[in-house]
Structure prediction request, 141 residues.
Amino acid sequence: MTHSPRIDCEMQTALPATLDAIEEFFAEFRRRSANLLSQGDYFATELLVREALTNAVVHGCRGDPCKQVRCSLRLRGSRLFISVADDGEGFDWRAERNTTADLWDCSGRGMELLRQYADRVRFNNKGNVVTMIKLIDKGKL
Prediction:
């Protein structure tokens, strides 16, 4: 993550739509955020970003490595802004926003995870961009 006067830190990347690219992203994310987030905030952030990136690759781009997934993380004060966009067709998030998943379900838990770990979640109209805000406990840095 880079530092700027207005933004505490920032990380932006474009990835091929593959699960291997997500793992490479998280290796870099772990290295860059090691001293920025408490253990609890790190867990929640990785969970949110991993869920959004995986859904973008698997559902949005259908694993097509010719398509891209873009991720942006910006920490400003105690707010972490997370955005994930993909080249896919999008989905009807309005129909899915109130769905709940059973604890033991193997899939379909994405909306529930976003609700539980993000403080705010928004989708674009098409459903191929999700933006989340996660409040960070700056006292733990």
Notes: The longest helix spans residues 39-60. The chain has one domain: 9-140. The chain has a mean pLDDT of 89.
